[in-house]
Design goal:
Oligomer: single chain
CATH topology: Rossmann fold
Radius of gyration: 16 Å
CATH class: Alpha Beta
Strand content: 5-15%
Helix content: 40-55%
CATH superfamily: Alpha/Beta hydrolase fold, catalytic domain
Shape: globular
Number of domains: 1
Distance between the termini: 29 Å
Number of helices: 6
CATH architecture: 3-Layer(aba) Sandwich
Largest sheet: 2 strands, parallel
Strand order of the largest sheet: 1-2
Length: 116
């Protein structure tokens, strides 16, 4: 979720985030439906039909090394296949970049929303 540097520098933030996750655990049935949908939902052949302005944003370190694959690579593919999509890679950010570095993550989102 966070970079190693952030975890070491801000253990209290990480602990609070973990507490929030534990406090908001969904019912098992709902969580399992999410997992199945995430693994089985495939609409890649339809994304070229998206007509709305689209921002694809990801942290540069959101690569899940040894895990489920790279969100950076997935984001690049999405931005390439969605017509006129804008790709923003937040340098140094992991999966939790919006919490870890809002000063880098929020401006591109706000800029995109202002323009659209």
């Amino acid at each position: 979720m966070f970079t190693d540097q952030f975890v070491k520098a801000h253990p209290e933030v990480v602990k609070e985030f973990q507490k929030l996750i534990v406090d908001e655990v969904p019912p098992l049935k709902c969580y399992l439906r999410h997992v199945v949908a995430r693994q089985c939902h495939e609409t890649t052949d339809l994304i070229h039909k998206i007509k709305s302005p689209t921002l694809v944003i990801v942290g540069s370190k959101d690569t899940h090394e040894g895990g489920t694959g790279s969100h950076v690579e997935s984001a690049k593919v999405l931005a390439e296949k969605i017509p006129n999509a804008e790709l923003v890679i937040v340098e140094g950010g992991a999966h939790g970049y919006l919490r870890e570095m809002p000063e880098k993550g929020h401006p591109p989102i706000l800029d995109f929303l202002r323009r659209h």
